[in-house]
Design goal:
0% strand
């Protein structure tokens, strides 16, 4: 595989990881907003429950409130688990991005060295041709 083909492959891999990282970041931000909203709702419902409980409620209403708050608590816990999973995925993707970027940079430097070596070779040949022409001209005119 040529160096250019390998560089393009590494660039595409780097771009793919960047896109994955962007998607995870978006998902993580959305889940954090959802978790915050659930937490606010849960706290609001807990405050409302306390007010109703102080005023006196039938047992059926208490059980209904407890069921609702248990569901909200479970939803918040599930959201936090998803956030933890997304955070882990983000860290893994970030690590892969660092590796992909380093690999691409190594290939970029190698390609630049090859181009510099090629330019030096071309300049050397041109200088050699110029020197030969000058030598012939001196010999011919001299």
């Amino acid at each position: 595989m040529s160096l250019d083909a390998l560089r393009r492959l590494k660039e595409r891999a780097e771009e793919a990881v960047m896109m994955e990282l962007a998607q995870i970041t978006q998902d993580l931000a959305g889940m954090e907003r959802r978790c915050d909203a659930l937490t606010v709702r849960m706290e609001s419902d807990a405050a409302a429950f306390r007010v109703h409980a102080e005023q006196g409620m039938p047992i059926e209403a208490v059980l209904e409130w407890q069921g609702r708050m248990d569901e909200e608590r479970a939803a918040v816990q599930q959201s936090r688990r998803v956030i933890a999973d997304l955070t882990d995925r983000w860290k893994q993707a970030q690590a892969r991005l660092v590796v992909a970027t380093q690999e691409r940079k190594v290939l970029d430097r190698l390609a630049e060295r090859q181009r510099a070596a090629h330019r030096a070779d071309v300049q050397r040949r041109e200088q050699q041709a110029t020197d030969e022409s000058a030598t012939r001209l001196r010999l011919w005119s001299g």
